[in-house]
Amino acid sequence: MPKVVFTRPDYEIVTHYLFVWSQKLVSEAKKNKWTVTDLRKSQATIAKFTAAVGKTSPALILLHGHGNYSSISGHNGKVIIQAGQNENILKNAVTYAFSCQTAKELGTAAVEAGAKSYIGYNEDFIFFQTEGMEKSPASDKRAAKFMEPALEVSTSLLAKKPPKEAFRKSQKAFRKNIDSLISSNSKEVYLVRYLLWDKNHQVCLIKNSKTAAIDT
Hints:
Protein name: Gingipain domain-containing protein
Number of helices: 6
CATH class: Alpha Beta
Mean pLDDT: 95
Shape: globular
Largest sheet: 7 strands, mixed
Order of helices and strands: EHEHEEEEHEHHHEE
Low-confidence stretches: none
Number of domains: 1
Strand order of the largest sheet: 2-1-3-6-7-8-9
CATH topology: Rossmann fold
Organism: Candidatus Gottesmanbacteria bacterium RIFCSPLOWO2_01_FULL_42_22
Distance between the termini: 33 Å
Oligomer: single chain
CATH architecture: 3-Layer(aba) Sandwich
């Protein structure tokens, strides 16, 4: 069976939303007969991540957490992958980083170091949550407008779709939510600008090519 490694820290509100929303991906992976390594909460450390990748040689790596242009972090904001230091840990794998900014430098460095592909965001990923829903993020309909299209990448990759197709399906899901808000009388039409931001800053990097966000 193909192998997948998840990092899913959970130590403040943003990572808690990502943690809860990504839980269904773990179930999806098992349903699709992936061998799963789920580095959850305090397990999302550089030591455990390095060991898991070295032991399993995963075909797919799904990263969740805070990031900047050159790195992505795990538990308590501690870096687990840093461009110029250990980006080659993603070599031979398909990676999706649900994180801010990392596709700008880290993703490029990873692909140059031999990663099969890297899907992520080259600027901040912005999402809105509903006040008071922190204890039940999966029921937060405002957050869902952002989480569902973003997680379409992971869902498609776990269904063994190629990276470019996973990227395009996510782009279409963002567009669907944007069009739905524009055509409605919703008071939340202000979210459109942020959905467009996320859509336009989502990129798919593949060695010797680059698929950037496009209208689909």
